[in-house]
From TrEMBL:
Glyoxylate binds at residues 132, 167, 273, 276. Residues 3-377 form the FMN hydroxy acid dehydrogenase domain. CDD domains: alpha_hydroxyacid_oxid_FMN. Its cofactor is FMN. Keywords: Flavoprotein, FMN, Oxidoreductase. Belongs to the FMN-dependent alpha-hydroxy acid dehydrogenase family. This is FMN-dependent dehydrogenase. The keyword Flavoprotein applies. The gene is lldD.
Length: 377
Protein backbone atom coordinates (compact mmCIF):
# COMPACT_ATOMS: atom_id res chain seq x y z
CA UNK A 1 0.00 0.00 0.00
CA UNK A 2 1.20 3.48 -0.87
CA UNK A 3 1.97 4.79 2.63
CA UNK A 4 0.90 8.37 2.10
CA UNK A 5 -2.52 7.36 0.82
CA UNK A 6 -2.86 4.84 3.65
CA UNK A 7 -2.24 7.64 6.17
CA UNK A 8 -4.65 10.13 4.61
CA UNK A 9 -7.43 10.79 7.11
CA UNK A 10 -9.92 12.45 4.78
CA UNK A 11 -10.72 13.11 1.12
CA UNK A 12 -9.10 16.54 1.25
CA UNK A 13 -5.77 15.01 2.22
CA UNK A 14 -5.99 12.57 -0.68
CA UNK A 15 -6.75 15.55 -2.93
CA UNK A 16 -3.58 17.22 -1.70
CA UNK A 17 -1.54 14.09 -2.49
CA UNK A 18 -3.01 14.06 -6.00
CA UNK A 19 -2.25 17.76 -6.45
CA UNK A 20 1.40 17.18 -5.54
CA UNK A 21 1.75 14.20 -7.83
CA UNK A 22 0.04 15.54 -10.96
CA UNK A 23 1.29 18.15 -13.40
CA UNK A 24 -0.78 21.32 -13.11
CA UNK A 25 -2.70 20.90 -16.41
CA UNK A 26 -3.75 17.38 -15.40
CA UNK A 27 -4.80 18.39 -11.89
CA UNK A 28 -6.75 21.29 -13.39
CA UNK A 29 -8.47 18.92 -15.82
CA UNK A 30 -9.88 16.96 -12.89
CA UNK A 31 -10.43 19.82 -10.49
CA UNK A 32 -11.78 22.51 -12.77
CA UNK A 33 -15.31 23.66 -13.48
CA UNK A 34 -16.90 25.94 -16.04
CA UNK A 35 -16.12 29.68 -16.26
CA UNK A 36 -16.01 31.31 -12.80
CA UNK A 37 -16.57 27.94 -11.09
CA UNK A 38 -19.46 29.35 -9.07
CA UNK A 39 -21.50 26.16 -9.49
CA UNK A 40 -18.53 23.96 -8.78
CA UNK A 41 -17.88 25.67 -5.45
CA UNK A 42 -21.62 25.94 -4.83
CA UNK A 43 -21.88 22.13 -4.81
CA UNK A 44 -19.50 22.02 -1.83
CA UNK A 45 -20.91 25.07 -0.04
CA UNK A 46 -24.48 23.76 -0.19
CA UNK A 47 -23.55 20.84 2.09
CA UNK A 48 -21.78 23.11 4.55
CA UNK A 49 -24.89 25.23 4.98
CA UNK A 50 -26.73 22.30 6.56
CA UNK A 51 -26.56 21.31 10.21
CA UNK A 52 -27.22 17.82 11.54
CA UNK A 53 -28.81 17.18 14.93
CA UNK A 54 -27.04 14.61 17.08
CA UNK A 55 -29.34 12.19 18.92
CA UNK A 56 -28.99 10.49 22.28
CA UNK A 57 -30.78 7.33 23.53
CA UNK A 58 -30.82 5.70 20.08
CA UNK A 59 -29.97 2.03 19.75
CA UNK A 60 -27.11 2.33 17.30
CA UNK A 61 -24.77 -0.30 18.74
CA UNK A 62 -25.08 -2.28 15.55
CA UNK A 63 -25.74 -0.51 12.27
CA UNK A 64 -26.50 -1.34 8.66
CA UNK A 65 -25.20 1.27 6.24
CA UNK A 66 -26.06 -0.86 3.21
CA UNK A 67 -28.80 -0.10 0.70
CA UNK A 68 -30.32 -1.17 -2.59
CA UNK A 69 -30.32 1.11 -5.61
CA UNK A 70 -32.60 0.06 -8.47
CA UNK A 71 -32.34 -3.52 -7.34
CA UNK A 72 -28.57 -3.56 -6.79
CA UNK A 73 -27.25 -4.09 -3.27
CA UNK A 74 -24.48 -1.79 -2.09
CA UNK A 75 -22.44 -1.74 1.10
CA UNK A 76 -23.22 1.97 1.45
CA UNK A 77 -25.30 4.43 -0.60
CA UNK A 78 -22.28 5.48 -2.68
CA UNK A 79 -21.61 5.05 -6.39
CA UNK A 80 -18.59 6.08 -8.42
CA UNK A 81 -19.63 8.58 -11.10
CA UNK A 82 -18.53 8.22 -14.72
CA UNK A 83 -15.43 10.32 -15.39
CA UNK A 84 -13.50 10.41 -18.64
CA UNK A 85 -10.09 11.22 -17.19
CA UNK A 86 -8.84 8.09 -15.44
CA UNK A 87 -6.35 7.28 -18.17
CA UNK A 88 -4.34 10.41 -17.58
CA UNK A 89 -4.18 9.75 -13.84
CA UNK A 90 -3.00 6.16 -13.66
CA UNK A 91 -1.89 3.42 -16.02
CA UNK A 92 -4.64 1.02 -14.85
CA UNK A 93 -7.27 3.74 -15.26
CA UNK A 94 -10.88 2.48 -15.25
CA UNK A 95 -9.82 -1.08 -14.43
CA UNK A 96 -8.32 0.13 -11.15
CA UNK A 97 -11.50 2.08 -10.42
CA UNK A 98 -13.77 -0.86 -11.19
CA UNK A 99 -11.63 -3.20 -9.07
CA UNK A 100 -11.64 -0.78 -6.15
CA UNK A 101 -15.42 -0.30 -6.35
CA UNK A 102 -15.97 -4.02 -6.40
CA UNK A 103 -13.56 -4.67 -3.51
CA UNK A 104 -15.39 -1.97 -1.52
CA UNK A 105 -18.86 -3.38 -2.20
CA UNK A 106 -19.86 -0.25 -4.13
CA UNK A 107 -20.81 0.41 -7.74
CA UNK A 108 -18.83 2.03 -10.57
CA UNK A 109 -20.70 3.70 -13.41
CA UNK A 110 -18.37 3.09 -16.32
CA UNK A 111 -18.46 5.88 -18.88
CA UNK A 112 -18.61 6.09 -22.67
CA UNK A 113 -15.43 8.17 -22.57
CA UNK A 114 -12.84 5.77 -21.30
CA UNK A 115 -9.37 4.41 -21.84
CA UNK A 116 -10.74 0.88 -21.54
CA UNK A 117 -13.43 -0.89 -23.49
CA UNK A 118 -16.79 -1.83 -21.94
CA UNK A 119 -15.75 -5.48 -22.30
CA UNK A 120 -12.55 -4.94 -20.28
CA UNK A 121 -14.38 -3.14 -17.48
CA UNK A 122 -17.30 -5.58 -17.48
CA UNK A 123 -14.81 -8.41 -16.97
CA UNK A 124 -14.00 -6.79 -13.60
CA UNK A 125 -17.57 -5.86 -12.71
CA UNK A 126 -20.44 -5.24 -15.13
CA UNK A 127 -22.14 -2.69 -12.90
CA UNK A 128 -23.75 0.26 -14.73
CA UNK A 129 -22.85 1.96 -18.01
CA UNK A 130 -23.05 5.69 -18.75
CA UNK A 131 -23.99 6.61 -22.29
CA UNK A 132 -23.33 9.73 -24.30
CA UNK A 133 -26.10 9.01 -26.80
CA UNK A 134 -25.50 9.62 -30.46
CA UNK A 135 -28.15 10.90 -32.89
CA UNK A 136 -27.14 8.13 -35.24
CA UNK A 137 -29.81 5.49 -34.49
CA UNK A 138 -28.09 2.45 -36.03
CA UNK A 139 -24.93 3.28 -34.08
CA UNK A 140 -26.96 3.83 -30.91
CA UNK A 141 -28.65 0.45 -31.34
CA UNK A 142 -25.30 -1.21 -31.86
CA UNK A 143 -23.97 0.39 -28.65
CA UNK A 144 -27.03 -0.63 -26.62
CA UNK A 145 -26.71 -4.20 -27.83
CA UNK A 146 -23.00 -4.28 -27.02
CA UNK A 147 -23.57 -2.92 -23.52
CA UNK A 148 -26.37 -5.44 -22.87
CA UNK A 149 -24.31 -8.31 -24.29
CA UNK A 150 -21.38 -7.66 -21.96
CA UNK A 151 -23.81 -7.66 -19.05
CA UNK A 152 -24.04 -4.11 -17.69
CA UNK A 153 -27.03 -4.04 -15.36
CA UNK A 154 -28.30 -0.49 -15.77
CA UNK A 155 -27.89 2.32 -18.26
CA UNK A 156 -27.24 5.94 -17.30
CA UNK A 157 -27.94 8.47 -20.05
CA UNK A 158 -26.15 11.78 -19.53
CA UNK A 159 -28.30 14.64 -20.80
CA UNK A 160 -26.46 17.77 -19.68
CA UNK A 161 -23.83 17.98 -22.42
CA UNK A 162 -25.61 19.31 -25.54
CA UNK A 163 -22.36 21.27 -25.96
CA UNK A 164 -19.24 21.32 -23.83
CA UNK A 165 -19.05 23.62 -20.86
CA UNK A 166 -16.54 26.44 -21.05
CA UNK A 167 -13.70 25.02 -18.98
CA UNK A 168 -11.22 27.84 -18.95
CA UNK A 169 -8.49 26.05 -17.01
CA UNK A 170 -8.20 23.53 -19.84
CA UNK A 171 -8.12 26.27 -22.47
CA UNK A 172 -5.45 28.14 -20.55
CA UNK A 173 -3.45 24.91 -20.24
CA UNK A 174 -3.91 24.23 -23.96
CA UNK A 175 -5.80 20.98 -23.45
CA UNK A 176 -8.30 20.71 -26.24
CA UNK A 177 -11.65 18.95 -26.38
CA UNK A 178 -11.92 16.15 -27.43
CA UNK A 179 -9.16 15.78 -24.91
CA UNK A 180 -5.71 15.83 -26.37
CA UNK A 181 -2.37 17.19 -25.29
CA UNK A 182 -0.75 19.85 -27.46
CA UNK A 183 3.07 19.93 -27.46
CA UNK A 184 2.83 22.99 -25.16
CA UNK A 185 0.64 21.05 -22.69
CA UNK A 186 3.06 18.13 -22.73
CA UNK A 187 5.94 20.50 -21.97
CA UNK A 188 4.01 21.95 -19.06
CA UNK A 189 3.53 18.45 -17.71
CA UNK A 190 7.29 17.89 -17.60
CA UNK A 191 7.34 19.51 -14.15
CA UNK A 192 6.30 16.10 -12.82
CA UNK A 193 8.78 13.69 -14.43
CA UNK A 194 7.44 10.59 -12.64
CA UNK A 195 3.94 11.24 -13.93
CA UNK A 196 5.24 12.07 -17.41
CA UNK A 197 7.30 8.88 -17.65
CA UNK A 198 4.37 6.75 -16.56
CA UNK A 199 1.97 8.52 -18.88
CA UNK A 200 4.24 8.09 -21.87
CA UNK A 201 4.82 4.43 -21.04
CA UNK A 202 1.12 3.82 -20.70
CA UNK A 203 -0.16 5.81 -23.64
CA UNK A 204 2.27 6.90 -26.26
CA UNK A 205 3.09 3.82 -28.32
CA UNK A 206 -0.40 2.87 -29.42
CA UNK A 207 -2.11 6.20 -29.13
CA UNK A 208 -0.29 8.83 -31.15
CA UNK A 209 -2.93 10.56 -33.28
CA UNK A 210 -2.52 11.23 -36.97
CA UNK A 211 -2.32 14.97 -36.27
CA UNK A 212 0.65 14.40 -33.97
CA UNK A 213 -1.25 15.06 -30.73
CA UNK A 214 -1.31 12.47 -28.03
CA UNK A 215 -4.78 11.43 -27.02
CA UNK A 216 -5.27 9.04 -24.15
CA UNK A 217 -8.68 8.19 -25.51
CA UNK A 218 -7.89 6.93 -29.00
CA UNK A 219 -11.14 6.25 -30.80
CA UNK A 220 -13.12 8.03 -28.10
CA UNK A 221 -12.32 11.19 -29.99
CA UNK A 222 -15.00 10.14 -32.44
CA UNK A 223 -17.58 9.65 -29.72
CA UNK A 224 -16.82 13.00 -28.18
CA UNK A 225 -16.88 14.90 -31.43
CA UNK A 226 -20.36 13.54 -32.20
CA UNK A 227 -21.92 14.74 -28.93
CA UNK A 228 -25.34 16.17 -29.45
CA UNK A 229 -28.40 17.30 -27.46
CA UNK A 230 -30.44 14.30 -26.28
CA UNK A 231 -34.15 14.79 -27.03
CA UNK A 232 -37.18 13.28 -25.28
CA UNK A 233 -37.67 11.12 -28.40
CA UNK A 234 -34.12 9.83 -28.13
CA UNK A 235 -34.78 8.85 -24.54
CA UNK A 236 -37.99 7.05 -25.54
CA UNK A 237 -36.03 5.27 -28.28
CA UNK A 238 -33.38 4.18 -25.79
CA UNK A 239 -36.10 3.00 -23.39
CA UNK A 240 -37.61 0.87 -26.16
CA UNK A 241 -34.29 -0.82 -26.81
CA UNK A 242 -32.87 -1.22 -23.32
CA UNK A 243 -34.40 -3.86 -21.06
CA UNK A 244 -32.72 -3.03 -17.75
CA UNK A 245 -33.08 -0.09 -15.37
CA UNK A 246 -32.64 3.29 -17.06
CA UNK A 247 -31.35 6.40 -15.32
CA UNK A 248 -31.04 9.96 -16.58
CA UNK A 249 -28.05 11.96 -15.35
CA UNK A 250 -27.93 15.74 -15.34
CA UNK A 251 -31.41 16.78 -14.19
CA UNK A 252 -31.96 20.03 -12.25
CA UNK A 253 -35.36 21.22 -13.54
CA UNK A 254 -38.58 19.52 -12.35
CA UNK A 255 -40.06 19.64 -15.88
CA UNK A 256 -37.08 17.64 -17.16
CA UNK A 257 -37.58 15.17 -14.35
CA UNK A 258 -41.19 14.75 -15.49
CA UNK A 259 -40.13 14.26 -19.14
CA UNK A 260 -37.55 11.66 -18.14
CA UNK A 261 -40.03 9.71 -16.02
CA UNK A 262 -42.72 9.92 -18.72
CA UNK A 263 -40.25 8.44 -21.20
CA UNK A 264 -39.58 5.54 -18.86
CA UNK A 265 -36.64 6.52 -16.65
CA UNK A 266 -36.44 4.50 -13.43
CA UNK A 267 -33.82 6.71 -11.85
CA UNK A 268 -33.00 10.43 -11.87
CA UNK A 269 -29.51 11.69 -11.10
CA UNK A 270 -29.66 15.26 -9.87
CA UNK A 271 -26.43 16.72 -11.18
CA UNK A 272 -24.76 19.77 -12.70
CA UNK A 273 -21.87 17.62 -13.96
CA UNK A 274 -19.67 18.67 -11.05
CA UNK A 275 -20.03 22.33 -12.07
CA UNK A 276 -18.39 21.63 -15.41
CA UNK A 277 -21.28 22.59 -17.70
CA UNK A 278 -23.48 25.65 -17.00
CA UNK A 279 -21.79 27.94 -14.52
CA UNK A 280 -24.38 29.52 -12.17
CA UNK A 281 -26.52 26.40 -12.34
CA UNK A 282 -27.79 25.66 -8.81
CA UNK A 283 -25.88 23.42 -6.46
CA UNK A 284 -26.99 19.83 -6.91
CA UNK A 285 -27.99 19.58 -3.24
CA UNK A 286 -30.15 22.72 -3.49
CA UNK A 287 -31.98 21.26 -6.50
CA UNK A 288 -32.50 17.89 -4.82
CA UNK A 289 -35.70 18.50 -2.77
CA UNK A 290 -37.58 19.91 -5.77
CA UNK A 291 -36.66 16.91 -7.90
CA UNK A 292 -37.52 14.46 -5.12
CA UNK A 293 -40.96 15.97 -4.92
CA UNK A 294 -41.35 16.06 -8.74
CA UNK A 295 -40.40 12.38 -8.95
CA UNK A 296 -43.02 11.63 -6.30
CA UNK A 297 -41.79 8.09 -5.71
CA UNK A 298 -42.05 7.12 -9.40
CA UNK A 299 -38.27 6.98 -9.81
CA UNK A 300 -35.33 6.68 -7.43
CA UNK A 301 -33.50 9.98 -7.09
CA UNK A 302 -29.71 10.10 -6.73
CA UNK A 303 -27.55 13.10 -5.85
CA UNK A 304 -24.30 13.84 -7.67
CA UNK A 305 -21.82 16.65 -7.02
CA UNK A 306 -19.80 18.02 -4.11
CA UNK A 307 -19.85 14.95 -1.84
CA UNK A 308 -16.60 14.92 0.16
CA UNK A 309 -17.71 13.70 3.62
CA UNK A 310 -19.86 11.01 5.18
CA UNK A 311 -21.97 13.82 6.65
CA UNK A 312 -22.59 15.02 3.06
CA UNK A 313 -23.97 11.59 2.20
CA UNK A 314 -26.20 11.62 5.27
CA UNK A 315 -27.47 15.11 4.37
CA UNK A 316 -28.31 14.04 0.82
CA UNK A 317 -30.23 11.01 2.09
CA UNK A 318 -32.03 13.17 4.65
CA UNK A 319 -33.19 15.37 1.76
CA UNK A 320 -34.58 12.38 -0.12
CA UNK A 321 -31.72 10.95 -2.19
CA UNK A 322 -31.53 7.18 -2.45
CA UNK A 323 -27.74 7.32 -2.87
CA UNK A 324 -24.96 9.66 -3.96
CA UNK A 325 -22.35 9.59 -6.70
CA UNK A 326 -18.80 10.80 -6.23
CA UNK A 327 -16.50 11.89 -9.06
CA UNK A 328 -13.41 13.87 -8.10
CA UNK A 329 -12.86 12.14 -4.74
CA UNK A 330 -12.04 8.78 -6.29
CA UNK A 331 -10.04 10.42 -9.09
CA UNK A 332 -7.84 12.00 -6.38
CA UNK A 333 -7.40 8.50 -4.94
CA UNK A 334 -6.55 7.05 -8.35
CA UNK A 335 -3.95 9.74 -8.98
CA UNK A 336 -2.45 9.36 -5.51
CA UNK A 337 -2.30 5.57 -5.35
CA UNK A 338 -4.06 3.68 -8.15
CA UNK A 339 -6.57 1.04 -7.05
CA UNK A 340 -5.44 1.28 -3.43
CA UNK A 341 -5.88 5.03 -3.50
CA UNK A 342 -9.45 4.66 -4.75
CA UNK A 343 -10.13 2.03 -2.09
CA UNK A 344 -8.77 4.34 0.60
CA UNK A 345 -11.12 7.14 -0.47
CA UNK A 346 -14.10 4.80 -0.51
CA UNK A 347 -13.17 3.42 2.90
CA UNK A 348 -12.96 6.95 4.30
CA UNK A 349 -16.41 7.81 2.92
CA UNK A 350 -18.05 4.58 4.08
CA UNK A 351 -16.56 4.89 7.57
CA UNK A 352 -17.51 8.56 7.88
CA UNK A 353 -21.05 7.81 6.72
CA UNK A 354 -21.43 4.99 9.22
CA UNK A 355 -20.15 7.23 12.02
CA UNK A 356 -22.50 10.05 10.97
CA UNK A 357 -25.41 7.60 11.08
CA UNK A 358 -24.51 6.54 14.61
CA UNK A 359 -24.16 10.11 15.83
CA UNK A 360 -27.53 11.15 14.37
CA UNK A 361 -29.27 8.11 15.85
CA UNK A 362 -29.88 6.01 12.74
CA UNK A 363 -29.26 2.27 12.92
CA UNK A 364 -29.93 1.69 9.24
CA UNK A 365 -29.90 3.63 5.99
CA UNK A 366 -33.62 3.00 5.57
CA UNK A 367 -34.34 5.02 8.74
CA UNK A 368 -32.64 8.20 7.52
CA UNK A 369 -35.08 11.06 7.04
CA UNK A 370 -35.33 14.82 7.39
CA UNK A 371 -35.68 14.75 11.19
CA UNK A 372 -31.89 14.98 11.52
CA UNK A 373 -31.71 18.30 9.66
CA UNK A 374 -31.80 21.57 11.55
CA UNK A 375 -32.53 24.72 9.56
CA UNK A 376 -29.77 27.30 9.83
CA UNK A 377 -30.60 31.01 9.76
C1 LIG B 1 -12.58 14.72 -14.94
C2 LIG B 1 -14.05 14.50 -15.03
C3 LIG B 1 -14.58 13.83 -16.13
C4 LIG B 1 -15.97 13.60 -16.21
N1 LIG B 1 -16.47 12.89 -17.29
C5 LIG B 1 -17.79 12.60 -17.32
C6 LIG B 1 -18.32 11.78 -18.34
O1 LIG B 1 -17.61 11.31 -19.23
N2 LIG B 1 -19.67 11.52 -18.32
C7 LIG B 1 -20.49 12.02 -17.34
O2 LIG B 1 -21.69 11.76 -17.35
N3 LIG B 1 -20.01 12.79 -16.35
C8 LIG B 1 -18.68 13.08 -16.32
N4 LIG B 1 -18.18 13.84 -15.29
C9 LIG B 1 -19.08 14.30 -14.22
C10 LIG B 1 -19.15 13.25 -13.11
O3 LIG B 1 -19.84 12.10 -13.54
C11 LIG B 1 -19.92 13.80 -11.90
O4 LIG B 1 -21.14 14.33 -12.34
C12 LIG B 1 -19.15 14.87 -11.11
O5 LIG B 1 -17.78 14.58 -11.07
C13 LIG B 1 -19.72 14.95 -9.70
O6 LIG B 1 -19.14 15.97 -8.98
P1 LIG B 1 -17.93 15.74 -7.93
O7 LIG B 1 -16.70 15.62 -8.78
O8 LIG B 1 -17.98 16.96 -7.10
O9 LIG B 1 -18.22 14.47 -7.17
C14 LIG B 1 -16.81 14.09 -15.19
C15 LIG B 1 -16.27 14.74 -14.09
C16 LIG B 1 -14.91 14.94 -13.99
C17 LIG B 1 -14.36 15.63 -12.76
Amino acid sequence: MNMSVARAVNVDEVRELARRRLPRPVFDLVEGGAEDEITMRGNLDAFRRHRLLPRAFADVASRDSGTTVLGTKLRAPILLAPTGAARVLHRDAELAVARAARASGLGYVHGTVSGHTPEQVAAVDPFWFQLYASGDRPRLLETLKRIADVGFRALVVTVDVPVFGNRERDRRNRLTIPLSFSPVAILRCATRPRWTAEFIRGNLPQRAQPDGRVSPFGTQRQILSSLYPVTADDLAFIRDHWQGPLLVKGILHPADCETAIERGANGIIVSNHGGRQLDRAPAALDALPVIVSAAAGRAEVLLDGGVRRGTDILTALALGARAVLVGRPYLYGLAAGGQEGVERVLEILVTEFDRAMALTGFASTEQIDGTCLMPVQ
